[in-house]
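task queued by scheduler; priority normal; single chain, no ligands, no partner chains; default sampling; output format set to C-alpha cells
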Amino acid sequence: MKSWISRFGILYFALALVPLTWDTVVPLVAQDVLGIPEPAWSGSGDTAWNYVHIAVNATVATAGATVWTLVRPQQRALAPTLALTLRAYLFKALSAYGLMKLFGTQFPTPSLIKLTTTYGESSPMGAAWAYMGASPGYATFTGVAELVGALLLLSRRTTTLGAFVLLGVMANVVPSSSPCSSRTDVSSFLPSPPCSSRSFVPPRHIDSRG
C-alpha cells in the first residue's frame, strides 16, 4: 500500500507539472460524468473547471499507480522520486504566485469602480483582493517570502529551510483567503464556505429601523 501511494503521488504531481491540454476532457467529464454545467477556465484556481481538473488528474494517477504496481511491484527508491516531483510541483506553483505578487498582477491597485462599490455590494473575494491591492507592501512581502521559499526547495540541502519558510507563508495565506474564495460556479456541487457571497446581505435589504 505504501508503494502504491508513492506511485500515485509521483504520477499526480507529474501530471500537474506537464502542460497538458484538458480543454476537451474537463468539460466532458464535468457534463457527462458529474452532471455539472460546462465549466469555463479562468485565472482563478477556485472554479469548477479546476476542481474537475483535479479529479481527472487523480483518476489518471490512480489508474497509472495501479498498473505500475502490478507490473513492477518490487520497485525501490520511490521516496526520492516522490520528494523530487513534490518539490518541483511546489516550486512551480509558489514561484508563480510569488512573481505575480511582486509585479502586482495578482492583487492590482483597486480601480475607481471598486473604490466606489459599497462594502455590502462587494463579494467576499472582491473585498479581500481590494484590501491586498491597497496594501502593496504586504503583497510584496508575501510574494518575496513565497519566491524565496520556492527557490530553497530546489536544493536538497535547503529543502527543510524552504519548507519552514513556506509553512509560515501558508499559515497566513490559507486562513485569510480560503473561507472567502467561493465562486458561484462551484456552489452548485460544493458546500458554501462560512463567508461565501451568499452570506452577504446588501445594505438595501436591511431594515434601518431594526
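post-processing summary
- DSSP finds eight helices and no strands in the chain.
- Residues 78-102 form the longest helix (25 residues).
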